[in-house]
Amino acid sequence: MLSLAGLSLMSAVALSVWLVVRENLSSTPAPALTARPTLSESNVLPPTHSDRLLVPMADHATHDLASIVSADDVPSSRRVGIVAGHAGYDPGAVCPNGLTEAEVNMAVVRIVVELLSQQGYQVDLLEEFDTRLKGYRADALVSIHADSCEVPGASGFKVARVTHSAIPEAEDRLVECLYREYEAVTGLPRHPNSITDNMTNYHAFHEIDPYTPGAIIEIGFMLEDYAYIVRRPRMIARGIVNGILCFLQQNP
Ligand SMILES: [Zn+2]
């Protein structure tokens, strides 16, 4: 749950305006609110992303107001968006040997795009702050990131969707498909206790059309999972593609 105590005055004003406007739109459904995942403080790892990937709280109001559209508007396009984490923006996490997260992400993303295209999907390869993200409509959007080299002993992957989802059931299915298929293909363990606000309030979730199911996956740690995520990008990509297909085949 988000606490009002943490809001700045400007945020509170923005939220008030939003609430008033939203009440006047009584014929449209409000986005469902769901609880944040409970984080065990002792298990939370330091965030590996720059602050810009996290949307400030005041922006939620803007997003939710913009999100009030009819689900019937959205065509089934067999289109999928894949965000290459940090592409066109920054290197992301950097290992002591110079290996960057952006390189690792892009190597996987290129194969994901290739495999989904072979399945007949129109696939958009999107940069981290791609201008096409604004109002982006597709059958699914998945952003691909990797965790840093800075956590010795940490191994595994995790998947999240936006905290305040307009389509929580669909996004939960997408997350679950990605967990299940990625785990089955790669054999990597789940590492859900390191999910942070950088994932659940990931900026792209607040830019895309709210009826586009979205998820972010952290494919593994660049130190302990190097042999998987750097050396075997095709296997990593296959795990992600199988997760996306699992979801899309439930939603033809
Ligand atoms: Zn990242």
In terms of topology, how is this protein built?
Layout: H1 9-23, H2 58-66, E1 79-84, H3 101-118, E2 122-126, E3 140-147, E4 158-160, H4 168-186, H5 197-200, E5 214-221, H6 226-229, H7 233-250
Helix pairs in contact: 1-2, 3-7, 4-7
What does this structure look like?
Helix 1 (9-23) runs parallel beside helix 2 (58-66) and helix 4 (168-186) runs antiparallel to helix 7. This protein is α/β, with parallel strands linked by helices and 252 residues long. The chain is globular. The chain contains 7 helices and 5 strands. The chain has a 5-stranded mixed beta sheet. It has a single domain, classed as 3-Layer(aba) Sandwich (Aminopeptidase), CATH 3.40.630.40. The chain binds zinc ion. The site of zinc ion (ZN) has 6 residues, from loops.
Q: Summary?
A:
The protein is of the alpha/beta class and 252 residues long.
